[in-house]
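lol ok so funny story. i was supposed to be doing the assay writeup but got distracted and ended up predicting the structure for this chain instead. priorities right. anyway since i did it might as well share w the group, maybe its usefull for someone
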Amino acid sequence: MARYTGPACRLCRYLGEKLVLKGVKCATPKCPLEKRNVPPGGRPRTKTRRRISDRGLQLREKQKVRFSYGVLERQFRRFFAEAMRAPGPTAENFLILMERRLDNIVYRLGFADSRAQARQIVRHGHILVNGHRVDIPSYLVKSGDFVTWQEGSTRTEYYKRLVEEIKGKTVPGWLSLDEERMTGNVVALPSKDDIDSKFDGKAVVEYYSR
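and the output, tada:
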């Protein structure tokens, strides 16, 4: 399955929920869900619309997670299979694996306004992990890893603007950020309490268990 390249806001309208796919735009009145919360096709959501089946609800939850992290179906299944092999609840393992992706870490540290932008930054080789360049967005960070910028990238206009804007951003408790050195540290791996509450991991497990 090819990566979705259409309007990102269309996915939010399809699910009827903000996935923060456009970064800062999602928090402004320009967000399409703020203007007119209707699904693609223009038919308004009503209380009398046809009831969605349990399978349909599970699919929507699966798509919500996949669209939010920007992962293709094949890779999404691979992460799920890895979560099943790990000890502990599969739903928690799966969402923790998604949080550990390097593109998500770059986004969580405030180095990018969206995961899509973070993925592009990683692919272009701007990011170092423990001093080594990593250009694989799906790379899984470990506790104790340091994430910083490549020296050549610090001379770009984007980086210079980011240094000024980063001061107003917050990072999750399992990460730390040195704003002066623009270096992030994975203090610990995320726990179930650090997972975004809008994601229902159990529904994803139920979807793939059929």
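Residues 54-69 form the longest helix (16 residues). The chain has two domains: 8-98+198-209, 102-186.
back to the writeup now i swear
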